[in-house]
Batch of 3 targets.
Target 1
Amino acid sequence: MRASLIQIAVDEGESVASRRQRVAALVREQAGADLVVLPELWTTGAFAYEEFGPEAEPLEGPTYEAMAKAASDAGVWLHAGSIPERTASDSGSAAGDGPLYNTSLLFSPSGDLAAAYRKIHRFGFDQGEAVLMSAGRDLVTVRLPGTTLGVATCYDLRFPELFRGLVDAGAETLVIPAGWPERRRAHWTLLAQARAVENQAFVLACGTAGTHAGVPQAGHSIVVDPWGEVLAEAGAGEEVLTVDFDPAKVAATREQFPALKDRMLGLEPPRR
């Protein structure tokens, strides 16, 4: 299976509309890949909090339309990263004045929406995304020919229980778009490898380059196999990281070293 992770540089001088067109062209250039992955909030920048509201879109908005067309043109499965999604209000207003979500979109090679995932863990410690965005509630997996994807986003990477839930739902390849800051790049690599090892799954983690609202991005998108071996890693700038991997290695690893069978569930907390 061939995956291409497009590590997009977010330049504050580039309009969202221009970036959307540029990224669609990059996706089309990946014809021949099986799966293409984009980063988190690449339309606005993950730390450009003041842009979330003005640039928010309905689920089937301009980014949806551009990425659906690009996936169909390239004939690839496309994890289109995430967008700030503006939902309808409880009153059903057509103006879209409901809550915001950090929402990932995944398209089939025909351009149909295969899944949408609203980020569960929002970053910010009572500010930024944690205040501006609502939390998703649902785990999302998608069956592709040869593997089942488990979908997570950026800060989710720090919460192993989410990935256990995805594995229990059948995930074999974990796809994680992110806007991870450069100052915590060591955590990015460490956690990507940890999630691969503990879940005996492939990890495809796609970050951004550039600077988001004054926050330098880590870049260094990474692909890790079920034993924790790094198969490919990007640098700091914009690039396309392409790697071939064998999804059958997941089943072989879990059979050869069946650690997941030894999980102890339902343990009682210590008595005081």
Target 2
Amino acid sequence: MSSKASSHTPGQAEAARSHSVLPGIGLCLAISVVAMSGQAVEERIFSHPYVEALVLAILLGIAVRTVWSPGARFRTGIAFSAKQLLEVAVTLLGASLSLGAILASGPLLIGGIVATVAIGITASYGICRLLGLPERMAILVACGNAICGNSAIAAVAPVIDAEPKDIAASIAFTAVLGVLMVLGLPLFVPLAGLSDNQYGVLAGLTVYAVPQVLAATVPVSLLATQVGTLVKLVRVLMLGPVVVAFSLIAPHLPHDQSRPAGTAVRKGRLSFTKLVPWFILGFLILASLRSLGLIPDAAVQPITHLAGFLTVLSMAALGLGVDVRVLARVGGRVTLSVTASLVVLVAISLALIRLLGIA
């Protein structure tokens, strides 16, 4: 008995835990490498990716899970990749934001962008609930549409304690529409008679990811690309306040009836660190340090690449946690919800362009 007890020292316990995490992380890493290779092939052929590695990773994860369910030795590492590594990635994203460039764009446009995000979240949430989606999935879809697609979904998910199947479904269908937006949005230039500046604002307000904004605006003009990127950065900056807001709301959200008993979020008094998750504080701190010039330009690109890599890794983990049969059952409603929400967002954005008199 004593020899058995002595074999579990703190150091050995930590080593055992690390060892148990490694198989799952390794599996997620293998999927991530394939996904990033797929994006590299796209960039080589088309000059930009139509389907990013982040999306490919979750789709590949779902595909692997469909033909093979990872055993117990993989589950700890998969869960670690889906949660802890994702939180680190969200924190690191703050280093790529500079408040100075955003403030220089003028208070009227900034206020319009903030209003568009707020109205977009509210409208999307209402549409999703009207179509019968669970509250947490409705929040994920709303934030994904209104802010920055997959990244917003990934950031909000741990705060509201979303189910892995809801996260994966939201990301999968948002990703499909993200690609369609890149391909179809330039048609608004002739159809709506938009100038390059107006189109840049529209792209920045509606396209999900920054790389997708570039893909949607580069074929139009350099001005559209510059304006679209700036507006998109303001939208991304809204992620911090939105996540903080949902961290306050999360304890009062009911859970899906299918969730196992005893897993509901506690609704008692919460500490500040529970209300504002550590990774959001880290995100805001790094954004502030970047704005003050305390994070050098040379460090931004490596940090951003690391954040992107960890996000791809976590998306592979989320895909591995999804039963595709569950995804198929909710597919129709999610697709309709995301599509309707996106149409509303485009309408709001066009109205803002006209209202502000953007030339």
Target 3
Amino acid sequence: MAQKTLTDELIGRQILLLAILLIIIGISQYLALRFVLFHSEARSLHQEITVLAPIIHHAMVKHGALNFHSLANLLVTRLESPGVDVIITNRFGLLIASSSPFSTQVVPPLDVTHTYFLWHHHIVVDAPLGSLAHPSGYVWLLAATNSLDRILVRDIELFAFLGFLSLAITGWLGSLSVKHSLVPLKQIRDSTVRIAQGEIGHTTMLKNPPKELGELGDAINVMSLAIKDLLDQEKMLSDQMRRFVADASHELRTPLTALNGFLTLMSEDHLTEEEIQRGFQAMRQEAQRMARLVNQLLTLSRLDTAHETALSMHPISLEEWLNGCMPLIERLTRDHALQIETSPVTVDADKDRLTEMLLNLVENASRYTPQGSTIMIRIKREHPYGLVEVIDDGPGINENDLPHIFDRFFRGDPSRTSKSGGSGLGLSIVQALAHAMNGQVEVFNRTPPEHGAVFVIKLPLSSQESPDHD
């Protein structure tokens, strides 16, 4: 059995509702028309009997019931009209005169409390002759309902014909209307099919849709774009993970290869004592480099998964903290000129991690700038952050490399080896630590004619920071 379409369902419901409405209207019209026709006929009979009853009563009183019998038949013959019968009885209910074929068998009941009543497919109006308390007899006027029934039947037939015609026209026009109204829904269906087939990010612009379909279309467009963003992010993370694993494997393999090579040479026992000592020294350096790389990877892993447990946040006076870091900084910048600019600023941070961030930036500046050049460390306030800036006057950073400078294992110069360029994780750790402390880190080149790079660590000001400093 074929499944019904939404168009068929909506059109069918329209026709069904219209059919129910037409039936209700038809029944109401039939009852109203029947009431009007019957009351109109009864009113006409009532007007006639109002005039006729006193005349009959006067004749019965004047001539007596017995002499009135022949007069009554003559009167009935004179009063009888097409479709209207007359029945006259005395006060005891005995038939005196009649033009109705029913009166030979039974006389209509007497009902003076209602305007009219129905009896044997006739509308009957009755009246006493004389006073109601002492009548001389009774008279009935009977009008057959056949003509009225024919009018009602013709009305029903006409209404049924017009009703079926209305249903047919409604079905045709409703089909056009529903199909036009469902065009946006068809567009939405086609859009979802395309999305399901792999066109992630596909959107559909609907033209003047109904409010509900417009909202549905917008929701599907937002969903499609959101899925595309998620897939793009997933692809980017997947690519980063593959590159990260490859780079980490390469970085770890290099010292391991060196260690294995030295051990192989030493096992052959062809080396002099001096060569063995140099080998041990090189192995120690490679082991330290490998340990440093593993520690950096562990630091990034902890910051990626649960940075809350990796930090201990406290209010820190940047000026006092920098003074405590000076011995470490001077050792890293012994081949450079060092300048310090400070101001009283208090931030919320992890002191040890902040020191690690600063040393990474200072080491990076000293590694990539010429000997004798100047490295400046500046502390200042830029509400709502406290800033730690590391500024050098080296060659700066290639503009194409700036967006990727904090990527893991990224090196601006691909020709650099790990010996000259580090592991490529220092700046990634700086960024991860800054984000973990609810801050951020930025990098940009100095504005010409000055040259060099500027790294800025931004950390939220502490709640203990004096408002007078703002």
